[in-house]
């Protein structure tokens, strides 16, 4: 055991926070760290110098946060996630530690514009969508409310792809966010852990006659840590995001290289580095599946080794592990951690099965994010036996214990046993990672009230019967610092002027705005803020897409991952119907609309990519038709990321949250839009249900089938053709799409996409169309009454405080992790 930390060791004085001190230090960083004279410095040089000056002040508080945790021996939370969509960090850090104005003034004195620098910082390509952004919000909230925490993930060299458009088709290109380095991160060479794959398991008989197992991998590589500080609001705490980079143990096999086998000598290096090359490599092939599993085990093993090492360093034994450590599994990606921690505890530290199993379940919590079968991961047994033979043994042992308990204690029948088994015996035998995460955790939470209840009734119904105390709900939230204060400073300033600054520290105090919702003067001010944000988005659309849109139009926005259940298809079909109606009835007083789409489709998801192409094809026709008179514009903004969302969300008038009921676990975009004064059109799905409770049915536009109605229709295997035949508007829109009106170069391009709506319509696009179209006309009517619209918009903002990730994290801390939190 290492010697204890000496807390009275010399340490530097904290940096001054004045504009004068920052100005001097920025010049010093530019000269001695960047190596540039101010006379020739380019914007990216000023960006790096500014980040380094801000970072020094963050480090002061980072070090103090670490010292405080060691002094107090507080329980630590470890959040394991394959994604962390953290976005740009400089503005976040400056805002949270109160440096925005001093830095702005310092740069102004140097004739440099802070806004220009902020827009230059690359987005960290560490996530795909809601799952990764939620993890980032949670880390920031843990820092803000004083919870000692680490986030653990992968330092992807490219992360998710950069999306470009070629004739309306999605093209995937590498995202080179690390091309010029990352000034926020610190490599920790001392925190490097050996990760193994393959090989065999050696049984060893101990002197007392007991049997111990030793895994002897055939392949070894290193996981090397890179740390990024995550700053809490007002610098309450600075926690750590630790990302793992894969490196070969022997970068170049020199003897093979010198003998002429140049390619072979580099193979091991390339094989190791492939693990942290990209996020979500395609898993449609055996090689792709192996790489995905290698990624998941790589970061899980490195994280657990690091956690156990830190615990032993501070406490000296593992008996207190569950008292001092809480590990949250963000979806099934880190589920292999259950088996890996058992291996570490038993094989490396000599614990018996019973104690190891008790400790494992004591530390792990599992957050489920989906009811979609394809998203509840499973891996072929043969693949696990080949890559992780010891873990497969442990999984079999866990399964035997759980199934025995189910049979003997709960009296489960064969069907129920098959349902809860960690091994799916139907077809090719597969390990169910959702079941593994469930049985290995003391808490399993859903992320909205509806999702949690459906989880009990569907995917985990029999496990819920066996362990009825484990499933609980923790409705998602978003950090108001990034998603209001930073991305919408105009609105933040207006709210502060009207109700005072207390909401900055307790976002639920936004409810005071409700009393001002009908005030005509405040409505005008609120509308002026929205107008300015829409002008900024209109400029971005002109610059990127060469499409001119009017800020006077309603900005109708759907930005999220492209997936059939999220129903971008429903939205664009209704746009086609609206286009036809505008041309057929030019005499009507149509509400001008700009439909804004953004989102990425998984590279192997053909229908999602086809929907993107359809949106672009429809946009090309509508935007170029003079008969529309600019009353309808359609725009697809490529390469959706956090920074783009920060521009779009404050400008949105209407938020499209139209997923098939029962399929969206929660959603967080819905919360961000409403917080920024957008009205929601949506189904009773995910967190929309709880938003309706907070905001009231007079301030949202809800339509469509409920989750139960969707389940009933699917159960009856209804053919939707009659629904389409009985809806002339829908039928005409589908026929125009299927016949090639929007794809004259390939008239049959969308025939199968549309045909699927006639044959099965699994996602209820046809069945919900008429209700959706009627809801859109209701939206038109509200827009035509500005006083009503702005009163509703203000009330949306006023009642979104409950959806703060601070509230969510407090509930995790109190109900799952058992850690104290700071109170406002």
From TrEMBL:
GO cellular component terms, semicolon-separated: cytoplasm
One Pfam family cited in the UniProt record for this chain: Phosphorylase
Cofactor(s) the protein requires to work: pyridoxal 5'-phosphate
Keywords of this entry: Allosteric enzyme, Carbohydrate metabolism, Cytoplasm, Glycosyltransferase, Pyridoxal phosphate, Transferase
Subcellular location: Cytoplasm
GO biological process annotation, one example: glycogen catabolic process
UniProt modified residues of type N6-(pyridoxal phosphate)lysine: 672
Keyword Transferase on entry: yes
InterPro entries: Glycg_phsphrylas, Glyco_trans_35, Pyridoxal_P_attach_site
Catalytic reaction(s) noted: [(1->4)-alpha-D-glucosyl](n) + phosphate = [(1->4)-alpha-D-glucosyl](n-1) + alpha-D-glucose 1-phosphate
EC number: 2.4.1.1
Superkingdom: Bacteria
Major place of residence: cytoplasm
SUPFAM superfamilies in the record: UDP-Glycosyltransferase/glycogen phosphorylase
The UniProt record lists the keyword Transferase: yes
MF (Gene Ontology): glycogen phosphorylase activity; pyridoxal phosphate binding
Similarity annotation: Belongs to the glycogen phosphorylase family.
PANTHER family, per the entry: GLYCOGEN PHOSPHORYLASE, GLYCOGEN PHOSPHORYLASE, LIVER FORM
Function: Allosteric enzyme that catalyzes the rate-limiting step in glycogen catabolism, the phosphorolytic cleavage of glycogen to produce glucose-1-phosphate, and plays a central role in maintaining cellular and organismal glucose homeostasis. Phosphorylase is an important allosteric enzyme in carbohydrate metabolism. Enzymes from different sources differ in their regulatory mechanisms and in their natural substrates. However, all known phosphorylases share catalytic and structural properties.
Protein name, per record: Alpha-1,4 glucan phosphorylase
